[in-house]
Every structure is written in C-alpha cells, then in structure tokens.
Amino acid sequence: MDTEADLFYRQLPKVELHAHLNGSVSFETMETLIKRKPHLNIEHSMTAIRRGQRRSLDECFQVFKVIHQLVDSEEDILMVAKAVIQEFAADGVKYLELRSTPREVTETAHFCFLLTFIFVTKRFLVAVDRRHGPVVAMETVKLAEDFLLSSDGVVVGLDLSGDPTVGHGKDLLSALEKSKNCGLKLALHLSEVPSRRDESELLLNLPPDRIGHGTFLHPEVGGSDSLVDKVCKQNIPIGKSFPFHPPNSKITYLKYFFKHLNIFFYILLTILFLISVLS
Ligand SMILES: CC(C)=CCNc1ncnc2c1ncn2[C@@H]1O[C@H](COP(=O)(O)O)[C@@H](O)[C@H]1O
C-alpha cells in the first residue's frame, strides 16, 4: 500500500529528460507482449533487471535485444508508447522527453503516438544506435530532420546511444555534425566505459547539448582533466537514465535521489523548469 511519502513523490510535478522508450516498458505491458508472442518463449526474467541484481554491460544490452523481439510491429510500438506515456503521466511527470531508435519497417509508427491525447507535454528524440554504423546513422539523421520540420516542435533532437563498446564515434561524426547543423539538439551517450577517452574528446568538440551518463569522464576513473574541462567550460548538462522500469520505479528512484540530494533544490529546479516549459 502507498505510504504518505509515496503519494507525495507521485504527486510532485516532475520532468523526465532521459527515457529510452524500450527501456521504459512496465512489467504489466511486458506481460501483455510476452502473452502475445508465446512462440518466442520469453520469460519475464529475460526482459528486466530487478533491484539488487547485477549484470554485465553486455548482459544489459542482451536484454534490449529480447525486448526488441517483443516490440517488433507497428501495433506493438504504439501499444508500448501509449502505455509508457500514460505511466509517466500517472507518476506525476508533466514534461516528458522520450527517445527511441527507429526500426526499418516501422519507423513512422514511432511518431504516430505523439498525437494521442494524454496530459503530458511530450517531446521526442530520434535515436541512433551506434551498433548500426555510419550509413544507418546518416539515414536516421535525415529522418529526424524531416520530423524536425514536420512534427510541429515535437521532435527536438538526436540521441546517440547503444552498446558503448561497439564501433567508434569518429565514424558517426559527419552524421552528428549534419544533425547539429540542421537544428536538432544533440544528446550523446559518451564515456559510459573507461576506454573511450579519444572518442569522448571528439564528441565533446561538437559539442553535444546533453551528455548521457558520462560515467568515466573524470581522470580518477579513467577519463581526463581535458574531458572534465570541456564539459565544465561548455556547461554541458549530464543526464543519467534508469534503463529498466520496474513498477513504481519513478517513485523509488526519486526517494533514492532525495535521500542523497537536497530535496528543496530539486523541487525548486522542477518548478522553474515547468514554468519555463509550460509558459
Ligand atoms: C545497459 C545500461 C545499464 C545502459 C544505460 N545506458 C545506455 N547506454 C547506451 N544506450 C542505451 C542505454 N540505455 C538504453 N540505451 C539504448 O536504448 C535502446 C532501447 O530503447 P529504444 O529501442 O531506442 O526505444 C537500446 O537498444 C540502446 O540502444
């Protein structure tokens, strides 16, 4: 049963700036997807990382592959997107930025759900999965550019994500530069693993408008002073994501944050942000 504190955290107006669509599928939606595709023999344990469980990076990205098998048609994508938006809204999120990697056959479907009426301000970032290489990256940028022009402000940026141990950012630079030049904001996952200093230097020169994770930017964990300097001098915000969405996750994570950070500072930030977005 919800405690008074649970209720408080749920009702608190929130902004969500780093949600991957297929990393935000709830237990209930996953159940529906699994039932729809019994032939895949997928069990719940293969689609989520439960609290307290430890998995390697590789194992985490295997989970996304399983989820992608379950969400592979226009109908699935729409169902998942609607559910995710509704669940964020029910969790008190007033401004939501979702990001997702277009898949070949169903790319347009990703955007249809943006028209559905659910009371939350929605913005969308088209994601490039680094695993797919420079050609697909460029095609994705072109798609994002089309949507930037035609989505009436809903599509706002490009996300670079995917397994950080695969490929090299230098091969994606021209796609990222093109994206920046056409006015898309850049949200780049970088320094998610310790061995990517050169790549992070290159990506920070673009520069990105937001950094995803940036866990290993600091020299103490394998990054460098130069990387930290670039981030600080250019004032680039760093966003963390919680890639898997257990029931009530927003509430649990908020409690975690508030336990460790100053609650009043966060409430103030949220209110200021909401005022600037909604006014
Ligand atoms: C594994 C882990 C702890 C990750 C957190 N950090 C992440 N780093 C890079 N890419 C990510 C991360 N979390 C999700 N993604 C991307 O989001 C995708 C799932 O959402 P979608 O299919 O784009 O809708 C994944 O396939 C992956 O490309």
TrEMBL record:
Transmembrane segment boundaries: 256-278
InterPro entries: A_deaminase_dom, Ado/ade_deaminase, Metal_Hydrolase
Catalytic reaction list: N(6)-methyl-AMP + H2O + H(+) = IMP + methylamine
UniProt GO MF annotations: adenosine deaminase activity; metal ion binding
CC cofactor: Zn(2+)
SUPFAM superfamilies hit by this protein: Metallo-dependent hydrolases (SSF51556)
Keyword annotations: Hydrolase, Membrane, Metal-binding, Nucleotide metabolism, Transmembrane, Transmembrane helix, Zinc
Domain Adenosine deaminase: start-end pairs: 13-236
The keyword Transmembrane appears for this protein: yes
Tagged with keyword Cell inner membrane: no
PANTHER family (UniProt xref): ADENOSINE DEAMINASE, ADENOSINE DEAMINASE-LIKE PROTEIN
Record family assignment: Belongs to the metallo-dependent hydrolases superfamily. Adenosine and AMP deaminases family.
Protein's name according to its UniProt entry: Adenosine deaminase-like protein
